[in-house]
Amino acid sequence: MKTIILTNGTIFAEDGIIKNGYLVISGKQITAIAAGSPPDGLEGDIIDVQEKIISPGFIDMHTHGILDVDFMESSYEDTEKALSAYAQYGVTRVVATMLSNPIPAIIAQGKLLRSVKQESPIGSLMHGVHIEGPWLAPRCRGGHAAEYLCIPQKEDVEAIIKQIGDVVKTLTYAPELENALWLTEQLVENGIVPVFGHTEATYEQAEQAIKAGARHVTHMYDTTLGYKENPEEALVMLPGMETAVLYYDQVSIELIGCPVHVPKPFFKFLAKVKPSDKTIIVTDSLVGTGRPDGTIITYKDGRKAYVEKGVLRMIDPDPAVNGNLTGSAVTMNVALGRLAEYAEITQHDAIKWGSCNPAVTLGIEQETGSLKVGKFADIAVIDEDFNVTMTLLQGKIVFDKEGCYE
Ligand SMILES: [Zn+2]
Ligand SMILES: [Zn+2]
């Protein structure tokens, strides 16, 4: 079994920060973490990380794609290419997200993504699949096509669970829709995390679904309507879904790491009001992510957009549409750096929002999401500005910026 020893680093270990420490990997697992230098006689490939930070690899539980790859329509090879690209940003797990589409298309693509997860050498970077829509509130649909939105019909839910239920890990829906409570129960029974999103649910609708097992919120403050005015009492506010998901500690909340999608004060607000293991950063990134500013993307329907500072903006002859925000193109390391700045928290605390916290929500915290003996060696070597120099996926180097370690 191959042994790798990372030395001379600041280790963000599960039990705290170890300055000037070393970490030993045997095969896929972490086998030792300690301060100082490795003992004489320990055999293996030594990698001096030159005082950089040895961090848990990042988990992006909401991303639609990267480069020119969209997980809703990617081929086997394109999916592999995308997974390799995430590694340059320190990511060691993604939940590949599919946008609203007809149910048969979602099932067919879910099967393809499952084959990559099971068969490809880079497949273990994919934890599974996130179905986002088509069971969303029309008013809050955001970038989802109105024509595909519908209510969760029994036969559709059963077809998804039967055919791709093993690879589906999370499912975003609006809890106010007809059948949504039944849907929540079906998801829980089949080990899929029920997730609120694109919703204008009342407090009561959200609370009922939380009691039935809903546990997470997709990109809060973006296509989620928090409050309503009482039509019978002037200027009296009615609690909405926001109150329910902030009140119930078992619900985790994700923010897109982007100040255009999420105004900055929400980052420190969430850091203060939610339990520290229930706050999550995602990219919600689309095609175009990882490309330089100015890159032009052409969608399948012919519409065009361009990349600018981590977001995608429309290109359109109509000046009212031209330049409109159409999606996120941020990467996990940049998103986490922004979080540290906006929420005024340490780098160590910020990284939890993109490693152990998503691992807890996904139920994989026993195997990954933090650095501890016995867990997978899913590791990002980074500097204090969140620049990534090396990524290890289950003990294998999948990104090496300087190319000097292999
Ligand atoms: Zn969305
Ligand atoms: Zn999304």
Describe this structure in words.
With 406 residues, the chain is an alpha/beta fold. The chain folds into 2 domains: 3-55 and 373-400, Urease, subunit C, domain 1 (Roll); 58-362, TIM Barrel (Alpha-Beta Barrel), CATH 3.20.20.140. The protein has 10 helices and 24 strands. It has helices at 76-87, 103-119, 154-164, 180-189, 203-211, 241-247, 265-273, 332-343, 347-352, 356-362, and strands at residues 3-13, 16-26, 29-35, 45-48, 53-56, 58-63, 65-66, 69-70, 91-98, 126-132, 168-173, 193-196, 216-217, 227-229, 237-239, 252-256, 279-282, 296-298, 304-308, 311-315, 325-328, 379-382, 388-393, 396-400. Strands 1, 2, 3, 4, 5, 22, 23 and 24 form an 8-stranded mixed beta sheet that branches. β1 (3-13) and β2 (16-26) form a beta hairpin. It is globular and about 75 Å long. The chain starts with a strand and ends in a 6-residue tail after the last strand. The model has no long low-confidence stretch (mean pLDDT 96). Bound molecules: zinc ion (ZN) (2 copies).
